[in-house]
Amino acid sequence: MGLKVYLNGEMVEKKDAKISVFDHGLLYGDGVFEGIRAYSGRVFKLREHLSRLYASALAIRLTIPMSQEGLEKATLDTLRENNLKDAYIRLVVTRGIGDLGLDPDKCLNPTVIIITDKIKLYPESFYKKGMEVVTVSTRRNIPDALNPSIKSLNYLNNILAKIEAKLCRAPEAIMLNRDGYVTECTGDNIFIIKGAELITPPSYVGILNGITRNTVMGLAEKLGLSVKEDIFTQFHIYTANECFLTGTAAEIVPVVKVDNRFIAGGKPGKYTVGLISEFRKLRKSEGIKI
Ligand code: PXG
Questions:
Q1: 272 membership: H or E segment, kind and range
Q2: Which of 27, 109, 158, 159 is 20 to 30 Å from 171 at the Cα level?
């Protein structure tokens, strides 16, 4: 039996998990999503991800046609159906099927999708040796137009930045906001360490409030770091003692090269290494049981 996908209340075979070409998720990127991980039979920060999904939906005036508890159960059921203990989970809610016009009121039923699959991990060398990132010319969406706090299906801003980074042979892009302040990467939040201070851009510069970001801010205090949300520029990255990215897929990845300059001595720093090890302990012990 192949992989099953939850689609509007039913478990369907992967090959039959299809949606209409009139779905506004496809036609306009009108919808919201979440990426979640399960480790050793527990779904990490499931409730936090569900709350963010409902907040994103509320912000775009999309009513998810089931309760948060109902969607939590459907997520766990999908994992059980596929017998997955370590997984990547993708929740997607679109405006649903409408006509070719923009009008969301023509879409009567939102489409609800839960995909669970085996995880693709980043190469272990990223965690041991650190990765390279570049600052790109594509600016992060301005919050007044499309707030980056909304995890919407409109990821073109991030994709354009990713394309630029890859053209520079770097796997990730640092995106600045309109004013030139560092915001985040295309699918990860960014942190720098100066002395014993951990600094990450505040929400108002225009970022997704990462769940891994919040987790790491909590762990940092345990390691004796003081944690500050503050605006900073590329200068502060180039001169930082350490730098790393956080995200559900990436977890915590050290950054050792930025815009072709080695930073932080070209090696993952001691606090970053400590945070990675604390995070790996946490992900095993926490989470909702499948
Ligand atoms: N910023 C952006 C723009 C993101 O999309 C994060 C930060 C990190 O947030 P969390 O809550 O995951 O710590 C994200 C989330 C993927 C993938 O499969 C990852 C994200 C988005 C889309 C795809 O790698 N990251």
A1: helix 270-285
A2: 27
What is the value of pTM for the model shown? 0.97
CA geometry: angle 70, 280, 267, nearest 5 deg: 135
Structural Rg of the chain based on CA atoms: 19
274 CA distance to ligand 1 middle (Å): 22
Mutate which of 153, 208, 244 for ligand 1? The one with the most ligand atoms within 8 Å of its CB, which is 208
Domains and CATH numbers, the chain: 4-117 (3.30.470.10), 124-284 (3.20.10.10)
Q: Which atom of ligand 1 is nearest to the CA of 208?
A: 1
**Catalytic residue positions?**
151
- Which of 155, 183, 188, 211 has the most ligand 1 atoms within 8 A of CB, as the residue to mutate? 188
CA-to-CA separations, 129 to 10, 124, 246, 267, 268, in angstroms, rounded: 44, 9, 16, 6, 6
In tens digits, what is the pLDDT along the chain, a chain of 290 residues?
A: 799 999 999 999 999 999 999 999 999 999 999 999 999 999 999 999 999 999 999 999 999 999 999 999 999 999 999 999 999 999 999 999 999 999 999 999 999 999 999 987 789 999 999 999 999 999 999 999 999 999 999 999 999 999 999 999 999 999 999 999 999 999 999 999 999 999 999 999 999 999 999 999 999 999 999 999 999 999 999 999 999 999 999 999 999 999 999 998 999 999 999 999 999 999 989 999 99
As to burial, measured by CB atoms within 10 angstroms (0-12 exposed, 13-18 middle, 19+ buried), residue 106 is: middle
